[in-house]
Amino acid sequence: MLVAAADGSSLRNPGPAGWAWYIDPTHWAAGGWPRGTNNQGELMAVLDLLRQTHGQGEALRIVCDSRYVIDSCTKWMAAWKRRGWRKADNKPILNLELVQAIDQALQGRTVQFEWVKGHAGHPLNEQADYHARAAAEAFQLGLAPDVGPGFGPGTAARSAVVAPSGPPPAPDQPTLFG
Predict the structure, then answer these.
(1) Which residue in 21, 30, 31, 59 has the fewest CB atoms around it within 10 Å?
(2) pLDDT confidence of residue 155
């Protein structure tokens, strides 16, 4: 079983944000945005990990310090889908694009999620946190983050910034896209 940690970081919430996943020194990735939330970073770390490890044929355990991400993927997602991607109160779910992309990336995969306490010395989680924060700090300084080696050939060449889609959000709403 492949074991990886996924983490997100936001220097203000929302603010410069980063995400990262980490397996070992030769298999990790990071990215972020000039403006995003920690939850968006947490979700993007899981999504990128799922995408980069797709086709490996190996079960995946994702170590994560975000109960929001774990519950989104293991408890709430099926009900959201049945209700047309709405919460029980019929309000839209947050971070819909990321959640739907994770749902698609989970199809046909054997994935387990494990919660760990953040900033408590778990080696993989500490490394994911380090790289996520470094990405957020890079965006705060207007620099490109170190995106890491990725999982295999060609995976590190992807963009660290997600392209916007749809209409721009209201100015007071958090956004992945700046």
Answers:
(1) 59
(2) 62
> Looking at the DSSP assignment, which residues form a beta bridge with residue 1?
none
Q: Is residue 174 part of a domain?
A: no
Q: Tell me which DSSP letter residue 156 carries.
A: G
> pLDDT tens-digit profile of 11-28?
998 999 999 999 999 999
How many whole angstroms separate alpha carbon 159 and alpha carbon 83? 33
Q: Is 103 designated active site?
A: no
42 an active-site residue? Answer: yes
State which amino acid sits at residue 163: A
Residue 94 CB contacts under 8 Å (≥ 6 apart), including other chains: 39
In angstroms, the CA 95 to CA 60 distance is 23
Number of domains, the chain: 1
- Active-site annotation holds for 89: no
Whether the pLDDT of residue 156 is over 80: the answer is no
Q: Residue 151 domain-assigned?
A: no
Residue of 15, 41, 48, 129 with catalytic role: 129
Provide the domain limits for residue 88: 2-141
58 is catalytic: no
For residue 39, tell me if it sits in a domain: yes
Determine the straight-line distance between the first and last CA of the chain, rounded to whole angstroms: 37
- Domain with residue 7: its CATH number is 3.30.420.10
pLDDT digits (tens, 9 = 90+) for 46-101: 999 999 999 888 899 999 999 999 999 999 999 999 999 999 999 999 999 999 99
